[in-house]
């Protein structure tokens, strides 16, 4: 996967879009996050419980594959066939209605820990993408998504003051990853109160961190690098003159020869949903490394660029031709990696 903007569009936009359509139209298997609270709350049918965000194996993946659909229509419409463009718009028209998304918002308000924080972050990111999209139908999608974005904002503002410590795992519970997406999304949506709360929490938890042990990564089911998630969040909330010395102290070996964060993770079983997370790790590393590269000493930047090319190339096949445990979500992270240098 090349970093050249026009090349990713020409090479990947159409197969990525077809993959989005395929997985969002696949209702099963589906991993419900439904907590059974009594004998009358056992209905976990995704099509009934989640009228907007079913398909794509689980709620959060469905949300961010909808985001992928919006972004592909926004960034690469000329590289999609007419049939694929029409199918993406039709799917979004079908799912992102006031009634369907209103039901999702009500579900979250009734269950304020549902999909916290990863699903929250992607829901807000989808709302921001729809609000930004210069598409004829996007304004309708954006209006439908407003109640969901508001529900996430309320849940987040209630949660952050009660969270004593961040979660540093390399999976969905990672606090820094979610806060980075939420910070950007609510900045675009004009919610300064949410942005300020995220910044305060990020500084409280991470501003004094030093000498991260990058050699300990990855764990066996990581799709995120805890080190790079934290660095990317601080990149967003600190001014550049404060961030660059922080980064040098936090990851002094970033971009040097032998840096473990530049490697391609090894995957031994690509049908195992946990093991295949490591394919996503290659993509999320590439995305965050590209965002961090301008803050590195010039001598390290070429090494990082070469590493991110290897990481995205290693994941390219699994993104569209892999097992459903890979294809149901990887397009979103491939898009993040491909567009990092355009951000």
CATH fold assignment: Glycosyltransferase
Identify the overall geometry.
Answer: globular
Taking the sheet with the most strands, its summary is: none
- Please state the second-level CATH architecture: Alpha/alpha barrel
| Count of helical regions | 15
Describe this structure in words.
The protein is an all-alpha fold. The protein has a single domain, classed as Alpha/alpha barrel (Glycosyltransferase), CATH 1.50.10. Helices cover 62% and strands 0% of the residues. It is built from 15 helices and no strands. It has helices at 5-24, 46-49, 59-75, 82-95, 98-110, 118-132, 138-159, 175-188, 192-206, 226-237, 240-250, 277-292, 298-321, 324-327, 330-339. Helix 6 (118-132) runs parallel beside helix 8 (175-188) and helix 10 packs antiparallel against helix 11. The longest helix is centred in the C-terminal third of the chain and has 24 residues, at 298-321. Mean pLDDT is 95; it is low at 1-5. InterPro entries: DUF2891. This is DUF2891 family protein.
